[in-house]
Specification:
The chain is of the alpha+beta class and 194 residues long. It has two domains: 111 residues, Alpha-Beta Plaits (2-Layer Sandwich), CATH 3.30.70; 48 residues, SH3 type barrels, CATH 2.30.30.30. The chain has three helices and eleven strands, in the order E-H-E-E-E-E-H-E-H-E-E-E-E-E. The protein has a five-stranded antiparallel sheet with strand order 10-9-8-7-11, with no helix packed on it. Strands 2-5-1-6 form a four-stranded antiparallel sheet, covered by helices on one side.
């Protein structure tokens, strides 16, 4: 007689690939990422640890009248690790130089909770690394309404679209001038004439 074993997805976490937040010393995120990548390679645990990300986005800085694009860390002191939460992988990450622990662990040897897929998707999209594309009903030249954020309720015209980052440049009226503003595709709705 065969046993009927039900697998609880909350308990049987170690077979599922998920994203976790790892706390590091602030300013050492890239060094910790490199250390972790070397350890994955040298210890042969590529089947448990996958992507390691420092969440960065481009930022324009003006120095001596010149625009310089540099990468800005969105979450100083944190890196994101896509992994299967096996005992070995958990041990390797926790004991990597520069790592101070996992976020979402209650301590006492308890494994951490993963980042929700919706939150992680939003972070990946901001970094231009999302593989999920938002299907939009507007295009360059269309009038749109901004649904969320500081410009919520304002209307403008789409002047450019970047499908990779999922961000549209929208011309809105600010202080009596048409001003281009970058808005996430998800935060825009096409204005339809009725």
């Amino acid at each position: 007689m065969a046993e009927n074993k039900e697998i609880n997805p909350v308990i049987d976490d170690e077979h599922q690939k998920r994203w976790y937040v790892v706390n590091t010393y602030s300013g050492h995120e890239n060094r910790v990422k490199e250390n972790l990548e070397k350890r994955v390679e040298s210890m042969g645990i590529q089947d448990s640890l996958f992507r390691i990300l420092v969440a960065e986005e481009p930022e324009i800085e003006i120095k001596n009248g010149k625009q310089i694009e540099k990468m800005k860390n969105m979450f100083p002191g944190y890196i994101f690790v896509e992994m299967k939460m096996t005992d070995e992988a958990w041990y390797v990450v926790r004991n990597t130089p520069g790592v101070t622990g996992f976020i979402g662990s209650s301590g006492g040897g308890a494994k951490p909770f993963p980042v929700s897929p919706v939150e992680m998707e939003s972070i990946l999209r901001r970094m231009g690394q999302s593989d999920k594309k938002v299907v939009v009903e507007f295009q360059v030249g269309d009038e749109v309404r901004i649904m969320t954020g500081p410009f919520s309720g304002m209307e403008g015209k789409v002047s450019a679209m970047n499908d990779q980052t999922q961000i549209a440049s929208v011309l809105i009226m600010l202080f009596g001038r048409e001003t281009p503003t970058d808005i996430n595709y998800n935060d825009l709705q096409k204005i339809t004439e009725e």
